[in-house]
Design a protein that fits this description.
The protein has 13 helices and no strands. The protein is mostly helical. It has one domain: MetI-like fold (Orthogonal Bundle). The chain starts with a helix and ends in a 6-residue tail after the last helix.
């Protein structure tokens, strides 16, 4: 009983040590700050955006950025083919990308944790069923799979989340299953089992708290992937529908005049690049700090 009681304190101490390791990685911390700034921009978009993102003005059609001849500082990044302010649409588009990314990761990680714990701890036919389902879903290319689901369900915010989460859960499931297979054999789990604790109690209170670190790292890494997938679906016209601002659809809007009005596609494309790069670098820092296999 003493061994099981000491584990939460030990896990907390290890977690704090991992946070200190992460704080020493300046590049990762800087990237995390960039991600936080994007989140801040998404939350306070109505206060930050200089214009209504859906307000059209054909007299400003394809107006260039402020530093280019013909531009205005009140429309810093220029306007698109309908005269809408690109900066305002990028700011509001941040909401779509971050919300969908966070929602998909939250749903998929929750399902993956439950399925992975069940497969890794219960074993038997439960493990076989879940493992075979995971293998089947991994056999389909992610983007093609999502496009097929969106074609059946139709475009829309909720449908995007469902289509992306439908396969995304297999990644945290495999991680949780592997960690559970190792953790279920440790002494404190054996002690809890010997004391008569139920399977649910052991999975929830003994195993889950001690395998959360790799799950958090994987979830952070996968969020960047989900943001790219959402932008890809919106680029193809299967994602968020106009006039709602979405980075992928903004890039698609500028295809027709990429040479004469490069700013229409370039700036939302750079926003995607910056956010995804920042998430990837921050997640790599988390991996190095929280995964003992990467410690020196």
């Amino acid at each position: 009983m003493t061994l099981a009681a000491d584990m939460p304190a030990q896990a907390e101490s290890i977690f704090r040590q991992n946070l200190r390791n992460f704080s020493r990685n300046r590049l990762a911390v800087g990237s995390a700050v960039v991600v936080v700034l994007f989140i801040f921009m998404a939350v306070f978009a109505p206060l930050i955006a200089p214009h209504d993102p859906n307000e059209t003005d054909l007299f400003r059609r394809l107006q260039p950025p402020a530093w280019v001849a013909g531009g205005e500082w009140s429309f810093l990044l220029g306007c698109d083919g309908l005269g809408r302010d690109i900066l305002s649409r990028i700011i509001y588009g941040t909401r779509i990308s971050i919300f969908i990314g966070a929602a998909v990761i939250l749903v998929a990680t929750t399902i993956g944790i439950v399925a992975g714990l069940a497969a890794g701890y219960l074993r038997g036919w439960v493990d076989i069923l879940i493992s075979r389902l995971v293998d089947i879903l991994l056999g389909f290319p992610y983007l093609i799979f999502a496009i097929g689901l969106m074609a059946m369900m139709g475009p829309g915010l909720v449908n995007i989340i469902l289509a992306l989460a439908y396969k995304e859960w297999v990644i945290p499931c495999r991680v949780v299953r592997g960690e559970t297979l190792v953790t279920r054999e440790l002494e404190y789990v054996e002690a809890a089992r010997a004391l008569g604790a139920s399977r649910w109690h052991i999975m929830r209170n003994e195993i889950l708290p001690n395998i959360l670190s790799p799950v958090i790292v994987v979830a952070t890494i996968r969020m960047a992937h989900v943001i790219i997938l959402e932008a890809s679906l919106s680029f193809l016209g299967l994602g968020v529908q106009p006039p709602t601002a979405s980075w992928g659809s903004m890039v698609a809007d500028g295809r027709a005049f990429i040479l004469e009005a490069w700013w229409v596609s370039t700036f939302p494309g750079l926003a995607i690049l910056l956010l995804v790069l920042a998430i990837n670098v921050a997640s790599q820092g988390l991996r190095d700090a929280f995964d003992p296999r990467f410690h020196e």
